[in-house]
Amino acid sequence: MTVRTDLPPDFVWGVSTSAYQIEGRVDLDGGGRSIWDTFAATPGRVRGGVGGEVAADHRRRMVDDVALIASLGVDAYRFSISWPRVQPGGEGPANQRGLDFYDRLVDELLRRGIDPVVTLYHWDLPQELEDRGGWPARETALRFADYAALVADRLGDRVVRWSTVNEPWCSAILGYSAGVHAPGLRDPSAAVAAAHHLLLAHGLGVAALRDAGVTGGVGLTLNPYPVVAAGDRPEDHDAARRVDGIANRLWWDPVFRGTYPDDVRADLAPLGFDDHVGDTDMAVISQPVDALGLNYYRRHHVRHEAGASAENGMWPGSPDVLSVEPPGEHTALGWAVEPDGLTEVLHQAATVAGPVGLFVDENGAAFQDPDRAPVDGVVDDPARVRFLRDHVAATALARTEGVEVRGYFVWSLMDNFEWAEGYESRFGIVHVDFETQQRTLKSSAEWYRELLAGGGAVEAG
Ligand code: FCB
Question: What is the tens place of the pLDDT at every residue in 292-313?
């Protein structure tokens, strides 16, 4: 398989992870508990009843893991900071021992010539803040700004790019309405409040980072998916409009246009959405950013069916949305493989974000077999190689068509704690044996290394 990417030499190739998914040992160096510790410890919430206590043990294997990252030949490494390690109770002065770890990580990356890309919030809210209302409470956004300032103070001279929040749709909707992510609530009104406060946190976080004088670019990471109406009736198109509203426009319109879309506001009005929007909030949320990260996995295919989403909480204010899966190849999580959706979403993002640099901050797939266990030290994962090849090509196509996409990051560097799916869903290009913590490069990692070494053209498979 050959893929010619024709991407410019300054295009940023990277791999992504997040703190709770890989680090383990949350208690080390005075760290506190997050909502994911609580959620994972609640029976029935996470497949297999597992949590992030050990995960990929990265907290203790960091130096070796950075060597592994370097061996891939990437330009950048995107990781997240654990808020409860930095502020165990979610407020007050920094726990410097918690920050020391990230300080060492950043230095180790730079020593190896890898650019550190930092996400401040990848879902591990300090439990104490949840106890005081969590994201549905405005106060949490203010606390986030303090936390951002503490991290900026320590790392602001070396981080190359900052994302305030990662996939706020997941935090708000999956966390507070669908109840399938921490903190596991099923309250649509709380979810729409959380949505606004996550955006406010982003805006306040941007200001805090800039006030601290960080040298790197500043932005956020969204997960917009193109929406397809799986039916031709007007109500099918309305279902698609609603999903596009809640999944996509609810997030990037306020950041880049300074307003919530009228139709989304109307859809969410019965849930009290407007009550949370203060007079000056939109100016805070829409201050200029340098970058927009996009996490892309698939499209949403939806049609109207009365009451289909009334119980599952996926689309607050829209009870009649049925998600359907298109034919064709699917990943182990049942997600349709649709690389052209990535080209499409990059075009959509460029239209909204204008000249702001776009980065594919996450893209990858879980596949069941045969990458379960190494055989003679080899993990052959041809489906993932094809997946990555086709999505890299889709990214390059968008660039050829004029979209200012500046980087591509594989999700994920290594197998990890896949949230409610536990350790069963393996997204890594590096296999992790969770018993021994042995790391083994899968064929996809070898493929990615060849792609980067070859300057954009590689034979594989
Ligand atoms: C994204 C998350 C990431 C990972 C991938 C598979 O939604 O940002 O942490 O779980 O999905």
Answer: 999 999 999 999 999 999 999 9
